[in-house]
Specification:
By secondary structure, the protein is an alpha/beta fold. Helices cover 27% and strands 18% of the residues. It has helices at residues 17-29, 51-61, 76-80, 87-96, 131-140, 160-167, 206-213, 282-297, 315-325, and strands at residues 9-12, 34-36, 43-47, 70-72, 101-106, 123-127, 144-145, 173-176, 187-192, 195-200, 218-219, 243-244, 254-258, 272-275, 303-306. An eleven-stranded mixed β-sheet has the order 1-8-2-3-7-4-6-5-9-10-11, with helices on both faces. Helix 1 crosses helix 5 (131-140). It is globular. The two termini are 26 Å apart. It binds threonylcarbamoyladenylate and magnesium ion. Magnesium ion binds next to loops.
């Protein structure tokens, strides 16, 4: 492989989509790294079949190599070349792909996905994104391994500017597609014999999965006890500023993050008040979450106080991310296991 000297470029995919697609394919083909927009968050992508390229993802993010990556595909057929679908997984893929759903399925022995992508596990996480990401994978012709395009342990990037700030010239090409529409990572489930297990709540509400399959989704009692989805480890989305969830009061130097115009006591003295969605729309709140956390984290506030967010629909995933952001990394033994 040629020596990759990083001369990072940022391309808007909207001004010249064709040129962006071509350049991205060239970079991927020589084992390079691109940051690309998906409907959930920006991904840091490489060809999932090239071991050295996948290794660069771990190196660039500072991510522990035993943490497996999601493989992004452009079609069900492409996924089926690498994993085996049971009936439940097939129904889910047919209903929700392209979209914010990742399925963890058994790898086929003939799959050409590099073992580093799934960190040596016998299962592979697969997802079909929509829009530009799907067009790129279809054109490139191979699945792309892509975690969120942020430094390990930091908040996921939902805008190209976040990627530039976090990873800058460690990436060969950054594709700017504007703010991510969903703003939360995909929901990850593992299916087996008509059992659906939730590995990570995300951009697709669990209720929607239950409605389509008629099955109730199993939630894990103690997620961090199982390394199967290390992204579930408790301390994961970590702003530098201490963050308090379900806050009922704020002090003078705090930044308040609220929802649906809900007021908390002492808010009038706070440094800054941000609303995830003034109209109480949980989708809008999800899309704003990481950007608001970043604004709060750089506001100079002493604490970030987040008002209670409802647990319905996407509220489950929003509360999950907030609970992880609220745990100081040094409180768990898992401090180095962010992704
Ligand atoms: O929306 C998303 O899912 C974004 C975009 C870029 O697609 N990707 C993303 O990837 O959030 P990442 O790498 O940050 O999170 C992937 C999660 C990790 O928690 C990882 O442990 C879990 O998926 N995972 C990957 N492969 C797995 C497997 N075989 N079994 C269980 N969990 C797996
Ligand atoms: Mg991540």
């Amino acid at each position: 492989m040629e020596n990759l000297v990083n001369t990072m470029t940022v391309h808007s995919i909207n001004t010249d989509t064709k040129a962006a697609l071509e350049e991205a394919c060239t970079v991927l083909g020589r084992g390079g790294l691109i940051a690309l927009p998906t409907e959930t968050v920006y991904g840091l992508a490489a060809d999932a079949t090239i071991g050295e390229a996948v290794a660069r993802i771990f190196e660039t993010k500072g991510r522990p190599s035993f943490n497996p990556l999601i493989c992004h595909v452009s079609s069900l057929e492409m996924a089926q070349r690498h994993v085996t679908f049971d009936d439940t997984a097939l129904a889910l893929a047919e209903t929700f792909w392209p979209g914010p759903l990742t399925l963890v399925l058994p790898i086929r022995p003939e799959s050409t996905i590099h073992s580093l992508t799934c960190a040596g596990l016998d299962t592979l996480a697969v997802r079909m994104p929509g829009g530009f990401a799907r067009d790129l994978i279809a054109r490139y012709g191979q699945p792309l391994a892509a975690p969120s395009a942020n430094i390990s342990g930091k908040i996921s990037a939902t805008r190209a500017a976040h990627v530039v700030a976090d990873l800058g010239d460690r990436v060969d090409l950054i594709l700017d597609g504007g703010p991510a529409a969903i703003g939360l990572e995909s929901t990850i489930v593992k299916t087996h014999c008509r059992v659906i297990e939730l590995l990570r709540p995300g951009g697709l509400a669990v209720e929607d999965i239950e409605k389509v399959t008629g099955l109730s989704v199993k939630r894990r009692e103690n997620a961090s006890a199982v390394i199967e989805a290390p992204g579930m480890l408790k301390s994961h989305y970590a702003p530098q500023t201490p963050l308090h969830i379900n806050a009922v009061a704020a002090a003078r130097n705090d930044c308040v993050i609220t929802f649906a115009g809900k007021r908390i006591s002492g808010e009038e003295n706070a440094l800054l008040v941000l609303d995830l969605s003034e109209t109480g729309d949980l989708r809008e709140a999800a899309a704003n979450l990481f950007n608001h956390l970043k604004i709060a984290d750089t506001s100079g506030a002493g604490r970030i106080c987040v008002a209670p967010i409802p647990m319905t629909g996407l509220g489950e995933a929003i509360n999950d991310r907030l609970a992880r952001a609220a745990t100081p990394s040094d409180e768990t033994g898992d401090a180095t296991e962010h992704d």
